[in-house]
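@channel sequence for tomorrow's demo:
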Amino acid sequence: MVLSRSGSNKLLLFLFLFVRVNSVIFRRDIGLFLKDEDPQISQESEALEMRVSVVVPIFNEEDPVAQVLESLAQVPLDLEVVVVDDASTDRTWEILQDLRKKEPFNTYRYIRHDFNQGKGAGLRTGFGLVSGDLVTVQDGDMEYNPQDLPSLLRKWEEAADAKVAIYGCRDLSPQKLTTRWGNRFLTTVTNILYGCHIHDMETCYKLIPGALARALPMEGRRFEIEPEITACIIQAEYKILEIPISYTPRQAKKLSPWKDGWPALAMLLRRRFVNRFQFVAPTPTSVSEKQTTSLPQ
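structure tokens (generated this afternoon):
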């Protein structure tokens, strides 16, 4: 078939318009596709990038304190680190002031108490300042390896349940006999009183959802804070899951099985029978107001 010049021109014009219109439609559709998909991809990425707040209570730890913070800096997680110095009398605070001038330690937050109040008071200060999705504690003596923190987070994500806390379960066999049996006794009492089945109630590594962590009453001043946290988690109807962690107990411990064991037992009994914890999930307004509260650095 032979087309005239005018027919050829009309055909070329038709083909040009056809390609042009389809190009516009394609760009519109792909734009709508990207517009619809990007927020979803972004939301999924944000869900996977949980921020973990780590409270580091410190008292007279001039030897290991730098190593503790350096170890935290090597953890491949988005960490918010809050260091609370409970009025150390050695060079701990001086070392912290030198560290905070360097990266990444200049992104950490440093608080110092005017007088020594105990580990529980340090945790109460730190928990009142954190803003992370999840909260845990790092003792300042390097008994716990911060490289275990990603495993705790992974366990929490695998649980797929917001009302779950993850405990790092230690091998207590290297501990002194009195300390080991004290830990086992208190864990057994916890299981009996609160109807749970855990193996290491006194562990430092407790990964707790942020909303619950910020609502904990934190009345214990010394090491009785550990059973208090556990009691409150259970009374808030959160489930406790455990995962094995590494643990290297130091010889010169500040905790005394006799001096600190009885207050821990008393705390378990008081939280069970006298002063039960009732968790009320905070509203967005109350969370915002609480996060604007700070202490002098």
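heads up for whoever presents: The two ends are 88 Å apart (CA to CA).
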